[in-house]
Specification:
Radius of gyration: 25 Å
Length: 368
C-alpha cells in the first residue's frame, strides 16, 4: 500500500472515530472580507469557477484560503442579508471533501465496509481516495497562479488586485483597522495587526465624501461627509450603545490624524464611528475626550486625563466597503483655526453649514 493511500485511510479512520468529516480547520472569518491578520508573502489567484485563492504566511504558517459566492453589495435592507463570501481556510479541502455530499455519502458507505474482508479492494475506497486527493490538492491544481492584469479604479491600501476571466475584479487590501482611538499607540499585538481584506466587484466602488469646517462657535475643527454606493447612502440598522455595528450593513468611519501635536508624529487613529441612517452622513468634531468614558480603550494604568483634541496637519478617512466591495479612503487637509475677520473662511463656513443638511436628514449632525 502506498504512503499516500495509508495516509488517506488513516485520516478517514480518525474522522470516523471522531464522528465528523476529516480534518480540523480554522473557523471562518467573522467579517465578510477579512481573510487574515499580519499576513506576509501575500498572493492572489482566481479561476474560472468564480473562486479566489489567497495565499499568505502568518504566525510562521503558510495558509491557503479559498473564497467564493459573493460580489458587489446589496443596498441597505432589513429583509435581505448583506452579501458575504463563503470561506474555506483549508484551501479547498473543506469545500470539496468535508462539505461535498458525494464524498460524505461515500464516507458513510466506507464506514459500513471498513475492516471487512477485502474492503480495501472495494471501489468505494478508490472513489473516496480520488475525491480526497482532489480536495487535498485543490489549492495547487485549481488555479493557474494568478489572473489578468488589473485595470480597474485606484485602490487604497492595495496589496494585490487582478481582473478575473469573467471581467470582474478581485483585490486584497491591508491596513490597521484595529488601531486604538484617541491617538494611543497600540499596546497589544491585536491592536497593531494589519487586517488583510478580500473584495470582489464589478462596476463602481463605494465613495466617501469629505469636507471640513468649524463648530461651537467656530472654535473646534470639524470633519463631515457621506458614504454612498451606486449613488445611495450606506448605513446599518442595529448597533450597540457604544456604536459597534450589529448587522452587516453598518459601516464604521475611521479617522486618522497626521502629525497631531497632542499625539505625536505620523498617523494616529483619532476615532471611529458609524455612518448615520438613513442618509449615510457622518460628522466629527475634534474635541478633547476622556479615554476612560464613552466606550474608549486606554492602555493599562492610564491616568492622564483628557486626550486631544487630535488636530493634525491632515486627516485620512477610511471605510470598509459595503458587502464585499473594496475598502475606501480619502484625505483632507486641516482647515486651520477660524479667523472671524477672514472673508474667505466666513464664506466657506456659510457654505458648509448649508451643505451638511442638504446631504440628508441627520439629527445627530444637526446638533452641531
Amino acid at each position: 500500500m502506498s504512503h499516500r493511500k495509508r495516509h488517506t485511510l488513516a485520516r478517514l479512520a480518525l474522522a470516523l472515530a471522531l464522528g465528523a468529516a476529516p480534518g480540523l480547520r480554522a473557523p471562518q472569518a467573522s467579517a465578510s472580507q477579512l481573510v487574515g491578520r499580519d499576513a506576509s508573502d501575500v498572493s492572489l489567484a482566481v479561476n474560472r469557477n468564480g473562486e479566489a485563492l489567497v495565499t499568505y504566511t502568518a504566525d510562521g504558517r503558510l495558509r491557503h484560503v479559498l473564497a467564493w459566492g459573493a460580489i458587489n453589495a446589496r443596498m441597505p435592507s432589513q429583509a435581505e442579508p448583506q452579501v458575504r463570501f463563503r470561506v474555506d481556510y483549508s484551501g479547498g479541502y473543506k469545500k470539496y471533501f468535508e462539505d461535498n455530499p458525494l464524498a460524505q455519502e461515500l464516507a458513510r458507505a466506507y464506514r459500513k465496509i471498513r475492516n471487512t474482508p477485502g474492503y480495501l479492494a472495494n471501489p468505494i475506497v478508490a472513489r473516496l481516495q480520488k475525491l480526497q486527493h482532489f480536495a487535498d490538492d485543490y489549492w495547487k491544481t485549481g488555479f493557474d497562479g494568478g489572473c489578468g492584469t488589473y485595470n480597474g479604479p485606484r485602490l487604497a491600501y492595495e496589496v494585490a488586485a487582478c481582473r478575473a476571466p469573467d471581467g470582474s475584479y478581485w483585490a486584497l487590501q491591508a491596513w490597521h483597522v484595529a488601531w486604538p482611538d484617541l491617538g494611543f499607540l497600540p499596546w497589544t499585538s491585536s491592536l497593531s495587526q494589519t487586517w488583510l481584506e478580500l473584495s470582489h466587484w464589478r462596476g463602481p466602488l463605494a465613495h466617501i465624501h469629505v469636507w471640513s469646517d468649524w463648530v461651537y462657535p467656530e472654535h473646534y475643527h470639524r470633519l463631515f461627509g457621506q458614504v454612498t454606493y451606486r449613488g445611495r447612502a450606506v448605513y446599518g440598522y442595529k448597533a450597540t450603545r457604544k456604536g459597534v455595528p450589529l448587522d452587516a450593513y453598518g459601516r464604521l468611519v475611521y479617522i486618522d490624524t497626521y502629525d497631531a501635536p497632542r499625539y505625536g508624529p505620523g498617523w494616529r487613529r483619532e476615532n471611529s464611528f458609524l455612518t448615520h441612517a438613513p442618509s449615510g452622513t457622518w460628522c466629527y468634531g475634534l474635541y478633547p475626550h476622556d479615554p476612560l468614558q464613552g466606550g474608549y480603550r486606554a492602555p493599562p494604568g492610564y491616568h492622564g486625563g483628557l486626550r486631544g483634541p487630535g488636530v493634525g496637519a491632515r486627516y485620512r478617512i477610511s471605510v470598509i466597503g459595503p458587502g464585499v466591495t473594496p475598502d475606501i479612503s480619502a484625505e483632507i487637509a486641516d482647515p486651520g483655526n477660524f479667523d472671524p475677520h477672514n472673508l474667505l473662511q466666513i464664506l466657506r463656513q456659510l457654505t458648509m453649514k448649508a451643505l451638511l443638511p442638504a446631504l440628508g436628514r441627520d439629527a445627530a449632525c444637526d446638533a452641531h
